[in-house]
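Bit of a strange request maybe. I'm writing a small parser for structure token strings and I need a real example to test against, not something I typed by hand. Could someone generate the tokens for this chain?
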Amino acid sequence: MSETTSKPTTPPTSSPPEPTDETAAKVVTKRYEGLVMVRTKAIKGKGVWYWSHLEPILVNNSDTGLPKAVKLRCCLCGAVFSASNPSRTASEHLKRGTCPNFNTDATAQPISSVSPTGMMNLSSPASTSSAQTQNHRKRSSGHRSRTTHLVAPITMIEPARFSIDGSYPTRPGSETGLVPVPALPAPVHTSNAELYSVHHQQYHQLSGGKEDLNALAMLEQSVKKLKSPKTPPGQTLTKSQIDSSLNLLSDWVFENFGSVSFSSITHPKFKTFLNQLGLPAIPRREFAGDRLDRRFQIAKSESESRIRDAMFFQLSSDGWKSRNYHQSDEKLVNLSVNLPNGTSVFRRAVFTNGYVFSKYAEDVLMETMVEICGSNLQQCVGIVSDKFKSKALKTIENQHQWMINLSCQFQGVNDLLNDFSHDLPLFKHVTETCFKIANFVNTKSEIRHSFLKYQFQESGRARLLRVPIGNESVFDMVEDVLTSSRVLQLVLHDESYQFTREIEEILRNPQFWREIEAVSSLVKLVKSMAREIEKERPRVGQCLPLWEEVRVKVKEWCVKFEMNEGNVDKVFDKRFQRNYHPAWAAAFILDPVYLVKDRSGKYLPPFKCLTPDQQKDVDKVITRLVSREEAHFALMELMKWRTDGLDPVYAQAVQLKQRDPVTGKMKIANPQSSRLVWETYLTEFGSLRKVAVRLIFLHATSCGFKWNWSVSKWAQSRTGVEKAQKLMFIAAHSRLERGGFGTDDEKDAEFFGVANGEDDMINEVLFDASSP
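Reply from user aminoacidic:
Good idea to test on real output. This should exercise your parser:
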């Protein structure tokens, strides 16, 4: 019976786009950097026995020259292995004897490695005869062991068993009373590294203790320098090389201000590192002197040049918002400039303490505007700030009709959580109940010990439930209670401990756990949206779609947990109206990204998505941003824009999207296309294009820089404040050029989070390196 195999015909399915060579190279490079970091940390712990011999290397593609793989190379024999599991590679290659050069017994040892016990055994005839026989065998075989050429330091010889005035030590009980000691050759000079290696392998007691090993190493280094005082060729740096290196070092210190302290420059090991490179040590005062002034002038000149080249800008103000308004709270307000090409330039920082009044904020903003623009205030077309929307920003906008002043949408979405917490009965009930549970568990000693015991068994860690103090958020406490639900049930069912009747009824009630899950779900939903807004930094035209997305997700939450949509909608609408600005609707209509294709094939502005009041806001904003003489023409051009729209080819080019290689999301390929279309193609709209160009680029968030340092340590004197201002300017200017707003701690946490998720081997090595 013959069998016929046929391939079923299935419609082709779309497969995700294959990663490009550049993307793969980035992944490989990131993995290589992770292994290098792991190796650096592992050589201080258990992994030193093999990481000191294994070195990560990058293998490049012969065609493209880009990295294509990460390998491990043995420094002893040059063999190359896969980097998937370094610990197994080390066991198979080093421990099992595969590497021909990995042999600790046959390696040469410095003079301090000879055991005092072995030297003392020379006093017995048996040991002397054995040593002579062994030396005779080695000479007859043609090999000379370096161990027999080593001499123990005089401090390692016991005076009671060796004579110090003759060549023969006295041994009681012998016939002659003297036993000849074989002549010992001159000592072998060793390096610092060898002495440190021997110290870690086997410690020998010297007269001064183990610190003598360092002193002995310094002595032998001095002897080497005296024997060869000339510096080897090729290791001397010229003056220009030294100056260039020191300039780069100072730039690195300035640009990483807040992460790198000035005190680290004077660290002894850092000075030794500079000395090894042939560079002199730099005193701290030199970094805070002329070098700082020169670097500040360069950064300031570059930023001012960029602002001068732009026709207009938006002023961004971040840092006014504070959690504790009635307490002394050290804050730093960052003032930066957003340019039409999508870049930002840091301007200055303002130190504040405690609550800041609206009038003071208004004065600071106006002072900064005048400082940048001079008499041409129309160059500043708007302000975005994280506070004072209803007072300072509104006052400035009313005084300058060409300006659009917005409140930060990151703060607006975050404030939505506070609204839910205050206005929804569900949140109040859940937080009050969680507060009772947390206080009971944390204050009752027997319950607390049981809770910590079961928590450690379940998750490998033990900590108390977080309880908010003052104005701190209650959501951490709610999340702790929810994640500890199983632990609380274990404690509840433990007959050794007794709960109060009220707490026991709460923990046994399934309705409570459904309610706390609902609260936690809504908190995570809003926080995730806020984090995305902070990361993406949307423009003003994206505000309406963004809030609509939040509204849809909140409605889905209501359906999932069977909540009353009416109460939730009231809270949401109240917060939306507090943040809403008429410019949202105008930018949404004028931005070609949001044009909608109709049945005739035209791409028209989405007026149907607006409410009647929002459509009126579009007319009001446009007429306010032009002169009285142009207002009529601007409205006529708006009607033409509404009926004709944009050419389909240009509309498709503006709306073209591509996948972000980092997040995997589809994003607009060229965000500047919306503005450029109005500037270069839609020339028939004489008045409307002026409004669109100035309106479309405005940012909707003021998320500024996050500094991981305290202001108080610098604000002790006027000189200290001035130097801190210069350092912050240089660091912020550099960070904006690199496109980063977060701190280095956040980036490190993100890196290790990704690494831990992708490769368990790195976890294993890091754990070994940190273990005692």
